[in-house]
Amino acid sequence: MYIKAFIPYRGYYSSPFARWQGSLQNENSIELGAKTARRWLAAKDLNPKIFEYFIIGKTVGQLHTFYAAPWAAALMGATEIPGCHIPQACSTSTTCINQAAVGIETGLYENAFCLMTDRMSNSPHTIWPNPMGSGGMVIAENWAMDNFAKDPWGGVAMIQTAENVVKMVGGITKEDCDAVTYRRYEQYQDALANDREFQKRYMFSVEYKKGKKETALLQEDEGVTPTTREGLARLKPAIEGGVHSFGAQTYPADGNCGIILSTREKARELSADSSIEIQVASYGFARGPKAHISIPMIPAARMAMEKAGIGIKDVKAIKTHNPFTINDIYIAKKLNIEVMNFNNYGSPLIYGHPQGPTTGRVIIEMIEELVILGGGYGLFTGCAAGDTAAALVVKVS
């Protein structure tokens, strides 16, 4: 269990998420994330030079990725600090937060900033040299589409890893998936109530290039699909014999988020309300059987809870990364909880999946839900890269 790592209240933001090939499709995610973080720090009257270390989480290559961490830190205004770059597919943010917490816990630094950013749109087309191949023909890879289509270890497309779990568990129907999907859409609507009151607790606009000489602000999520029970029922499974339609799985997106990690004393100084304390309690990780996306989420969650010294009955808010509805159905079965009662206020199934910042936004939403509930433990667990997972427990006092 961690005892020294804290997140200042409101010491975090998430940009809106934009469906891929939308408003953010032409932005370099490193530049966009750093400039958004700089605008957010300025709005909070925080000097970037307070940070001693910087962590960037990003999974899709961008121009000048080689310099990702020091370049982003400099663009953010923290020109004198080093940093590192962490890519861990969908659980990138979870691991970035943990890495920063480890540094706080061990006394390496007192203030760190985690910036998680990605652009799934227009992902790179990489050419790999292949001098021993026939005629020296190169190997070509599209970073996003080719890796969605096949896990090199599991040997199947990402959606097949979800359907493999369905087959393993047994008895799960398309109707079950549709019901949970619609419930997740309802929960997202709660975040939009009263002129987006919940989202405005943490969401910060992103400024993007609308043309050569024109900029615009994206202030709310873009591209969320209106969802009805009847519409879901009409959709056919995406692959033959499966239970997930295109409505019961997420879509790629673009966006960024930032989170400050500090010692207890520094967190109080930086907090929007020093009476609210947010402690990073523990981290969990796991790997499951090949090409079974949901399975490792459970041992990762149990590891995080064990390290925090709690059980599932002690948890007041649960959030997940749910690129496929089976993730939530499987978790509910294994943890003996009601599937319709967690992921309040939103989840990636509905508002999209930019990879790097995905779980960062989810964890931020979990913190705000705990504040509304008057404090308590929150558990996040989410899959990453086919058959791995990471989890995080936070405590809000």
UniProtKB/TrEMBL annotation:
Pfam families in the cross-refs: Thiolase_C, Thiolase_N
Task: Tell me which UniProt keywords the record has, alphabetically.
Answer: Acyltransferase, Transferase
Active-site residues from the entry: 90, 353, 383
Quote the EC number. 2.3.1.9
The molecular function terms in GO held by this entry are: acetyl-CoA C-acetyltransferase activity
Every copy of the Thiolase N-terminal domain together lies at 15-261
Question: Where do the Thiolase C-terminal domain residues begin and end?
Answer: 280-395
PANTHER family noted in UniProt: ACETYL-COA ACETYLTRANSFERASE, CYTOSOLIC, ACETYL-COA C-ACYLTRANSFERASE
The similarity annotation says: Belongs to the thiolase-like superfamily. Thiolase family.
For this entry, the protein name equals acetyl-CoA C-acetyltransferase
Native species: Desulfoscipio gibsoniae DSM 7213
